[in-house]
Specification:
277 residues; alpha/beta; Rossmann fold; 2 domains; five-stranded parallel beta sheet; three-stranded parallel beta sheet; 8 strands; 47% helix; globular
């Protein structure tokens, strides 16, 4: 059995990193690899290599990367010693084989045909992953809605760290995602028109339990609330990671006078400017 693998920190997912990973996976298959593993650096190794200390835990990074298309198994990397890495690869592959053998009813009947999971998905993290996996486990197809930059500004009064187009490309790399849709209104009925035209039926909407008040007035669609632990959200949410990220990177770009720095305007202000012109 020929095993291909790559390694890295894989903390903040970026489109260019996933594209590079695509290239490595494809080339390994061309060289005859049957499976592909991914080694994730632990925090100490990142520091020893002069890399930024990861925002996310090793466990969370491994959970996320295991769901990327083309990745069969993941393993932790504590040292760049070749022999130690080879031992980790072999151990992780044996666990992967056992996991495959234990899988039952892969095509188990699911409750719903189409699921729709809207969100910003900025600085993609384990909380996002858990909610999407719950939705995917209940739906034969999953459409992920990605909030447009303008709507993030209007709703949360802040600029997303990662642009909407890149967030969409990142989500397309996940095994359980069948389609990605960019939305400019929080009304899920508008997204459902796109889904119904494409797939022939209404979607079931999946959102975190923290958004129950926002979606309680939605009419005509079934809404399923996935559990989000308030205590976990204090340390594992976009807001929590954003604070850490901004402490390390271009803080001024995402704070202060957002209109001058980004060109984003509130929709009411845009209309006012148009009238004045």
């Amino acid at each position: 059995m020929l095993i291909g693998y790559a390694k890295g920190s894989f903390d903040i997912l970026r489109q260019k990193d996933l594209q590079s990973l695509d290239e490595q996976i494809q080339l390994s298959k061309e060289d005859g690899a049957n499976v592909f593993g991914l080694g994730i650096y632990d925090s100490n190794l990142c520091e020893n290599l002069g890399l930024s200390t990861p925002l996310k835990s090793l466990d969370d990074r491994m959970k996320i990367m295991k769901q990327i298309r083309g990745i069969d198994f993941v393993f932790p990397v504590y040292s760049l010693d070749d022999e130690l890495i080879e031992a980790q690869v072999e151990s992780a592959y044996r666990a992967y084989e056992k996991e495959i053998e234990e899988k039952t009813k892969e095509n188990e009947e699911k409750k719903y045909e189409i699921g729709y999971a809207p969100g910003t998905y900025d600085l993609f993290h384990a909380g996002h992953l858990e909610n999407l996996l719950i939705a995917a486990s209940q739906c034969k197809k999953l459409v992920v809605g990605v909030k447009a930059n303008e709507l993030v500004m209007e709703h949360k009064k802040r600029v997303p760290i990662i642009d909407a187009e890149e967030r969409m490309e990142i989500l397309r790399h996940f095994k359980f995602v069948d389609d990605v849709y960019k939305y400019y209104t929080r009304n899920p009925n508008v997204a459902n028109e796109y889904i119904k035209n494409k797939y022939g039926q209404d979607a079931v909407v999946f959102v975190g339990s923290d958004l129950e008040a926002d979606f309680s007035k939605v009419k005509g669609l079934k809404v399923v609330y996935t559990h989000r632990d308030p205590e976990l959200m204090k340390t594992r949410s976009t807001t929590a990671y954003r604070k850490i990220y901004l402490g390390k990177h271009e803080k001024e770009r995402y704070t202060g006078n957002l209109k001058k720095q980004t060109g984003y305007l509130d929709r009411k202000e845009e209309k006012t400017e148009e009238l004045e012109r």
